[in-house]
Every structure is written in structure tokens, then in C-alpha cells.
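User: My instructor asked us to take a sequence, write out its structure as C-alpha cells, and then describe one feature of it. I'm not sure where to start. Here is the sequence I was given:
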Amino acid sequence: MKTFGLVVTVGAAVAVLSLGACGSDEPAGNPATGGSGAVDGGVGGGGTAGAAGKGGTGGGTAGAAGKGGAAGGAAGTGGDAGTGGVAGTGGDAGTGGVAGTGGVAGGGTGGTGGGAGGSAGAMGTDTKVLYIHHSTGGVVWGGGVPAWFTAYNTAHSTSYAITELAYPDSPYPWANYPYDYWHLWVEGKATEEGVPTLESFTSQYNVIVFKHCFPVSAIEADGTPDITSSTQTIANYKLQYAAIKTKLLSFPNNRFIVWTGAALTASSSNTEQGQRAREFFTWVKTVWDTPGDNIYVWDFFELETEGGNFLLDKYSADGGGDSHPSDAFAQTVAPFFSQRAVNVIQGNGDTTSLTGQ
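Assistant: Let's start with the prediction itself. The C-alpha cells for your sequence are:
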């Protein structure tokens, strides 16, 4: 059965995509800009501002490099020294590209931060998240994701907002595998297929979360690799993932969270498929996902399998046959997902647990 809708919690939004359909029966923070002369410290900026004034001593040391960018170089345009104090030391870098302001502060405006997306710096307290899913993602969402964010916002005086969306959906087939995201986003066929583009998501949300549902783990033996093929093989998946990564990196002001794929139960798969699924999602975590960019992983496959190759029967919706997770399992892992998303928002995505535990 399809589950879809649009739910907004509070505050800003991040986009979460859930890759892969679940069977035929299923359905930025803005970069800170330096002020005239002194640096305006905000997220992604070169550091806390010193005393205002034209010119002044250099803008401070560059911020630490974030995901997708080197530490800040010289910020703003140079200018003759005038009155004004020393700008503060650099903060964390902003999204992708060159980090925040730093170097010599001039009489002109300091350089802007690298953006809110790919850096190690924290995004705004009103960050917006988009959670894209099909049925398995819907089960996890129903395990308490909106309530978790509401409680977190209350306790930490933030206003993070998370919105869920079934995608891709009609008129496109109910399929969200690597091929489908490649076809819609990289090949650029979303508009032609009657569904929203990635560009439309990144313009509205700061963080995009996406995943595949459990049929993605029904991986066949490799044939001739073909990026344009919907045949589910590791070789095809790797080509499609490589192209998807390049596409995601072209949005340095956004951050992306991809789930490792949902697992199949042992009774609905076989030994070879289970081994291939683990091989591919291990590759996603250890090779495809690299520190220092704007892409992060939530390791859902590991939570479902606990080190094995299949969804454990105790976590299955019906105790072993259905590859959808149970409501009880969803209630356990929904806080893990939510914490993982907040870690990414706050700039700790590369230094905290991939499972959110």
C-alpha cells in the first residue's frame, strides 16, 4: 500500500530521500556574509566579528575546512588599514567550496561563507529537512520521527522542520532504486516523467534524505555494466551511484542523507542475494561516502540485519515473511534516524555514528 503525504513539523527543512520502491503492492542555512571591514561571524563565516571599522588588521585565521571545501582563504577585498579592531578567529567552514571569511579584512565587504551545506559547520536553527520515502520509510516515519523533532526543538530552542513526501509517485512507477534516481535526477527526466526535480527540492529544503526500499536488495549477478539499465546488479548500482554523487555535489549549499538499503527477509531472498546486498551497502559506506563533502549515510541496513545479510525475523512486520519492518522496530529506530539527521545539521555527520545510536 502506498503511504504518502506532506507533513511539516516546525522550523527549517532538510530533505531526506528514501531510495527504492517496496514492491508492486506498495505504494540551508544561509552562509554568513562578512560585514564591511569586520567579519560577520555566522555559520560558515570566518569567525566571530572583531570591532567594526574600515580596514583593520586581518580578518583572523581561516575556519576549519568543512565537507566539500578547503579552509577559508583571504576574505573580502583588501583595503587600506583604517580604524577598527582585529577580527575574531575563524569558525567552521560553510557549505562546500571555500570556507568562510578569513585572511585580510579590507575596506570592502568580507567574503561570504561557503554556504550551509557541505561544511563541518552547523546549519541554522531553522533548518528544513525533506524526507523522501516509499512504504518502508513511511513505517519508520510513523515510528515517531515528527514527535522526536518536536520534543528536540522544545528542549533545545531550535525550530528544525521535517517534511515527508512519497517520491517518486504517480505518474511515475512506484520505484525508487538507483536507476530511478539516476534517470530522474542525473539524466534529467523528472519533468518529462511528471514528478518534481531535485532542483525543486534543493531550492526549498536545506537537507534532503533519500532511501531505497527492500527490493533494492534483490541484487542479481553482474553482467555487462550499463548505467542506463534498470537491471539490479552491483556493477550497475555503482555506476548509477557514482553519477548520483556527482549530481549531489553540484548542490554545495545543501546536505544529503542516503539510507543504506532496506534488507529482505531470509525467506524472501537467498544466500547470494544477501551477500551481494551486504557487499554493495558496505561499499556505499566505506568507498562511495567520503568525508569532507555534503553527502552522509544513515546505516539502516545494519540496524535491520545486526551484522547479517537479511532483515531479522524479529524485526519483520509479520515475524519473518514480510520485508517491511514492524511498528515496534520503527519505534526503536526512528529516534536513531532523527538523531543522525540532527548530527548532520549540526556539522557532526562525519564524526558521529552512522546509525545514529
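For the description part of your assignment, you could build on this observation: The domain at 12-29+123-345 is CATH 3.40.50 (Rossmann fold). Try explaining in your own words what that tells you about the chain.
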